Amino acid sequence: MALFTELQLDEQILKAVNEMGFEEATPIQSEVIPKVKEGNDIIGQAQTGTGKTAAFGIPLIEQMNTEEKHPQGLVLAPTRELAIQVAEEINRLGRFKGVKALAVYGGQEISRQIKALKRHPQIIVATPGRFMDHMRRRTIRPAYMNMVVLDEADEMLSMGFIEDIETILAEVPEERQTLLFSATMPKRLQSVTERFMENPESVKVKSKGLTVSNIEQRYIEVPEKQKFETLCHLLDITPPELAIVFGRTKRRVDELSEALSQRGYAAEGIHGDLKQEQRDKVLRKFKNKTIDILVATDVAARGLDVSGVTHVYNFDLPQDPESYVHRIGRTGRAGKEGIAFSFATPKEISHLKFIESTTKKKMIRQDIPTFREAMQGRYQQAVDKLLETVKNEDIEELEHTAKTLLSGYDPVTLVAAALKMNTKEPDQGTIKLTEEASLRPKKSRGDRNRGGDRRGRNRGFRGNRGNRKKRR
Ligand SMILES: Nc1ncnc2c1ncn2[C@@H]1O[C@H](COP(=O)(O)OP(=O)(O)OP(=O)(O)O)[C@@H](O)[C@H]1O
Ligand SMILES: [Mg+2]
């Protein structure tokens, strides 16, 4: 860690950094920021939640000319929510310097974006598909861009955005500076770095494994049919502040969020078949804690930074170890603690071991929690609620009634009854959850095959690829 004052930043950026409450630069920031200033192409790898956004955002802002009318910086990101978030962070960092970023992504009216472009943002943060749209309409001219950042480049590759990126970068002047960031750098990414970057310098923050140590990683071997009860029990035993539950498919996410709601949890789902408005609404509710459980496909696995996420549950194991790293990285951010639970069916244990071998971190095995433990958790919640009321609520009015009650009943009986009333009822009612097949051990699947799967499954919900095709 280094002080930001040692990084020779613009005064205005330093001021923004201070106001954001950053005290010291994180390792990736202190390594990358000076190197970007030297003008090199950089490949930056550091664990999830360690400030990669500001690591590229700060030097990007520094090199923007606020007199210039055309956008000069471009950040490409795999998902719409991530594009929005990165633009927000850049706007916070750049506000005293007068550098503005605009998020441009599928699912939002293009006319609205065209209007916003007239306010001359220096930096565009885009999903590849929508950026291509703007390029074709000539509403954005890449010819003036001199810095390009590929955030989560490996994910854009998996999603099949490679050709789009190629098309985009062919229109950005060659003498640009290109930066590439991710917490994971699978080998297949080399093709991207070779094609799009010039003598890139690799900056990799030294660490024991791919995941941060402040995330406790656990797994539970559980048959498919018992997963849902197991999840409910875990939620009861230690209620999360905010939790993300990852499911494999969109249908799974729909069914799971419905089932959780039915059982009385404040849960909603997010995936790519939802309208963008709905996606925004759900994420907003999660951020302001109207709901405390977000059920998601991998659309929420990358880059999303929501403070207060204490728990991540892999209801279904992810196919790729990379996806595992990013999913669990939604907790334990910026030095905070987090816990990740992964469910593996007996057949999937070998796949889990394969994930462990990639992350170089063993998960702690835990038994399936019992109904009794879950009930204890619920009672504890009732106790907490009662004590909270004692502490914070105005209950004087009820004192007379309480005394009358106490004259006729034993106090232990009364308190126990009050607790019982406040305890969530044992689960009942049937829920609908279509079974997922166990994942096959990864060894039998090729890289290309996996990439294709993901692309097929996710198409249309990141970067609006589907719509673009129709218009063409
Ligand atoms: N120097 C700093 N000090 C304190 N907090 C910071 C600092 N830099 C960034 N942060 C905060 O840490 C959080 C995580 O940062 P960021 O989203 O950039 O992580 P990341 O490395 O891109 O993670 P991911 O791999 O998941 O995308 C954000 O809330 C960010 O504002
Ligand atoms: Mg990031």
TrEMBL record:
SMART domains: DEXDc, HELICc
EC code: 3.6.4.13
GO molecular-function term, one example from the UniProt record: hydrolase activity
InterPro entries: DEAD/DEAH_box_helicase_dom (IPR011545), DEAD/DEAH_RhlB (IPR044742), DEAD_box_RNA_helicases (IPR050547), Helicase_ATP-bd (IPR014001), Helicase_C-like (IPR001650), P-loop_NTPase (IPR027417), RNA-helicase_DEAD-box_CS (IPR000629), RNA_helicase_DEAD_Q_motif (IPR014014)
GO biological process: response to cold
Motif, Q motif: chain positions: 2-30
Annotated region described as Disordered, given as residue ranges: 426-472
Keyword Nucleotide-binding appears in the UniProt entry: yes
Residue ranges with Basic and acidic residues bias: 426-455
Catalytic activities: ATP + H2O = ADP + phosphate + H(+)
Biased composition (Basic residues): 456-472
Family matches, as CDD domains: DEADc, SF2_C_DEAD
SUPFAM superfamilies: P-loop containing nucleoside triphosphate hydrolases
Residue ranges annotated for the Helicase C-terminal domain, each copy included: 214-376
Keyword list, A-Z: ATP-binding, Cytoplasm, Helicase, Hydrolase, Nucleotide-binding
CC terms in the record's Gene Ontology section: cytosol; ribosome
DEAD-box RNA helicase Q domain span: 2-30
Domain Helicase ATP-binding, first and last residues per copy: 33-203
Record's signal peptide: none
Family, per entry: Belongs to the DEAD box helicase family.
Record's protein name: ATP-dependent RNA helicase CshA
Species lineage: Bacteria, Bacillati, Bacillota, Bacilli, Bacillales
